[in-house]
Design brief:
By secondary structure, the chain is an alpha/beta fold. The chain folds into two domains: about 1-180 and about 335-375, Metallo-beta-lactamase, Chain A (4-Layer Sandwich); about 190-330, Rossmann fold, CATH 3.40.50.10890. The protein contains 13 helices and 19 strands. The chain has helices spanning about 40-45, 60, 80-90, 95-100, 160-165, 190-200, 215-225, 235-250, 270-275, 285-290, 315-320, 340-350, 360-365, and strands at about 1-5, 15-20, 25-30, 50-55, 75, 105, 110-115, 115-125, 130-135, 140-145, 170-175, 205-210, 230-235, 260, 275-280, 300, 330, 350-355, 370-375. It has a seven-stranded mixed β-sheet. It has a six-stranded mixed β-sheet with strand order 1-2-3-4-5-6. Strand 18 (about 350-355), helix 13 (about 360-365) and strand 19 (about 370-375) form a beta-alpha-beta unit. About 40% of the residues are buried.
């Protein structure tokens, strides 16, 4: 088994990993870069490829799927595919047919491509229905973590899954997104929910700027919303949440998101009277809605990555949206903290580590000196 990291060892986003045997070649993720910095020859990478497995629907992992020829099968989680279809129908409709052709996989059910076996393992991440891949070929075992964390609602299943279904591996490809900063232990999603509940009681009209596909964050806010108030969003957001509710809601009260109302100016008088929590994005029409409500009675929560408003990745569109607004930062990472990364390495005891999705690959050499680290 030959492992080739085409992109990701020294940058966050744009990950592409190749796994090759004498007879078979697969790719893990085919993402676009957050900022163009590592040119690749896509045609050469795709040459002879038998299948592409996508860990989750974030664009830095799936964004280049439109470049994959139709004869190469692309695999994504079942619910993740439905969410990506809804997102693509809104933002990139001309390529909708390319997402609809995706095949799907199921947790714990292996897929055989030539002599490579891929077993998807469900993980907690800010993208819903995200996966690690346990890969076996030519007598070797590899774990590709994708993006993951241990501090979300489903994070408690991480270590039991590794201990029961993975064990020792020959090679570990692991993300290190948060390692560029020393942020300590990450705030849990549950702690964020409790903090949101306290803040929401202080103001009648609550607007939350968050990702439309960060389902666990939205579930946190939904359950934190004070009793008797509306939970509002636009039609697109409601469609995304309907997918989650119909697929997972019957098995988990966390995702039984039924009492959601689409914002409409025809019933604004009800919203003014009862109060609400509304999910918003950095759109002009959403900003106009915010401006309708009195400043002294509204709370604006910024619940996405800080990098959109500061640093080298800041978004002028986001800064323009927030101009003149007083907001409170309320967020926790979708990625594993250093302690969780160490726990994963310890659980699977790899002979070699390939850091990806990181700007600090050297951290792994400093922390796991006895393990070979490919950077």
């Amino acid at each position: 088994m030959i492992i080739t990291i085409h992109r990701g060892t020294h940058q966050i986003g744009g990950c592409i990993t190749e796994i090759t045997t004498d007879t078979t070649k697969i790719l893990i993720d085919f993402g676009e870069e957050l900022m163009p910095q590592t040119p690749i020859d896509e045609g050469e990478i795709l040459r002879g490829c038998d299948a592409v497995f996508i860990t989750h629907y974030h664009s830095d992992h799936v964004g280049l799927h439109t470049h994959i020829p139709p004869h190469i099968p692309i695999y994504l989680g079942k619910v993740a595919k439905q969410i990506l279809v809804e997102l693509t129908a809104r933002t990139n409709k001309e390529n909708l047919y390319k997402v609809e052709r995706f095949r799907t996989y199921t947790p714990m059910q292996s897929i055989k491509v030539g002599d490579i076996e891929v077993r998807p393992l469900l993980v907690d991440h800010s993208a819903f229905d995200a996966y690690m891949f346990l890969i076996k070929a030519e007598g070797k075992t590899l774990l590709h973590t994708g993006d993951f964390r241990g501090h979300g609602f489903r994070g408690k299943g991480l270590m039991p899954t590794l201990q029961k279904y993975v064990g020792k591996v020959d090679a570990l490809i692991i993300e290190g997104t948060t390692l560029y900063r020393d942020g300590g232990e990450a705030k849990t999603e549950r702690a964020l929910q409790l903090q949101a509940a306290t803040l929401m009681k202080e103001k009648k009209y609550v607007f939350v700027l968050c990702s439309s596909t960060n389902i666990d964050r939205i579930a946190s806010l939904y359950h934190a919303n004070p009793f008797g108030r509306y939970f509002l969003c636009d039609a697109y957001q409601k469609a995304v949440l309907k997918i989650v509710r119909e697929n997972v809601g019957p098995r988990s009260s966390l995702y039984d998101l039924q009492k959601i109302v689409t914002y409409g100016p025809n019933i604004e008088d009800r919203f003014f009277k009862r109060g609400f929590c509304m999910l918003v994005r950095n759109r002009d029409d959403h900003r106009r809605i915010i401006d309708k409500y009195p400043e002294d009675e509204r709370l604006i929560l910024y619940s996405i990555w800080k990098g959109y408003v500061e640093g080298k990745h800041k978004s002028e569109r986001m800064i323009r949206f927030l101009d003149g607004l007083h907001y409170t930062y309320l967020h926790t990472s979708g990625y594993a903290d250093a302690e969780t990364i160490c726990e994963v390495v310890s659980a699977v005891s790899p002979d070699v580590i390939y850091p990806i999705h990181t700007e600090n690959a050297a951290w792994f050499k400093g922390r796991f000196g006895r393990v070979e680290v490919k950077t």
